[in-house]
């Protein structure tokens, strides 16, 4: 059950679509009741239910409060396409660990080829509602070879700099780049080396794709006292 409702803000109203309206009915909210809502714009909204229809509902904004918490350094997570259950887990945990943006690329070893932004955004929104965070992270698909070296840490076992040192050196922003579950290809590794990317390994222990991602994000949050 969501802690917050997610909708589209239009003037002084928030519109809930069919799925959110169903949740509203399940918890037996009626016209005149108050509910908490978010729209992804960084504000918390206290609202009053003024319409409940078959396909949507309308909330009237009573009060809004901006989230006071800022998360630095800013984290941009870049993931290689992998099996959906693993991708889903990472996206959920990345939102919980307050990344500001997520990008997904099709690696040469990726067996998947996702094209629906909405599929990923749905997971992001569900996690926002459950964890009570009002700012939606940006999401997009990218080409790996458009990645810039600046502020980027590539996770791979063939490291060229120390993991802890790399994280401690992060300042305002960092891009965490993780290959697909089958790893980077030879050509992709050559691209990193030729362009002198900083390559780090989270440790000597061999980790699964999703474990390495969550461990790295958690370590950044801990060392930088980010949460």
What would a concise description of this structure say?
The protein contains six helices and twelve strands. The protein is an alpha/beta fold. It folds into two domains: 5-66, Ribosomal Protein L25, Chain P (Beta Barrel); 74-223, 3-Layer(aba) Sandwich (Alpha/beta knot).
**Sheet with the most strands, sense and barrel status:** 6 strands, mixed
| Straight-line distance between termini | 24 Å
Roughly what is the average pLDDT, rounded to an integer?
A: 95
How do the strands of the widest beta sheet line up side by side? 1-4-5-6-3-2
Q: How many strand segments?
A: 12
SS-based structural class? alpha/beta
Any idea of the CATH topology of the largest domain?
Alpha/beta knot
Globular, elongated, flat, extended or rod-shaped: what is the shape? elongated
CA-based gyration radius: 20 Å
Keywords:
single chain; 227 residues; alpha/beta; Ribosomal Protein L25, Chain P; Alpha/beta knot; 2 domains; six-stranded mixed beta sheet; six-stranded parallel beta sheet; 12 strands; 28% strand; elongated
Describe the structure.
- The protein is α/β, with parallel strands linked by helices and 227 residues long.
- The chain has two domains: 5-66, Ribosomal Protein L25, Chain P (Beta Barrel), CATH 2.40.240; 74-223, 3-Layer(aba) Sandwich (Alpha/beta knot), CATH 3.40.1280.10.
- 30% of the residues lie in helices and 28% in strands.
- The strands form two sheets. The protein has a six-stranded mixed beta sheet. The chain has a six-stranded parallel beta sheet with strand order 9-8-7-11-10-12, covered by helices on one side.
- Strand 5 (43-52) and strand 6 form a beta hairpin.
- Helix 2 (84-96) packs across helix 3 and helix 2 (84-96) packs parallel to helix 6.
- The radius of gyration is 20 Å and the shape is elongated.
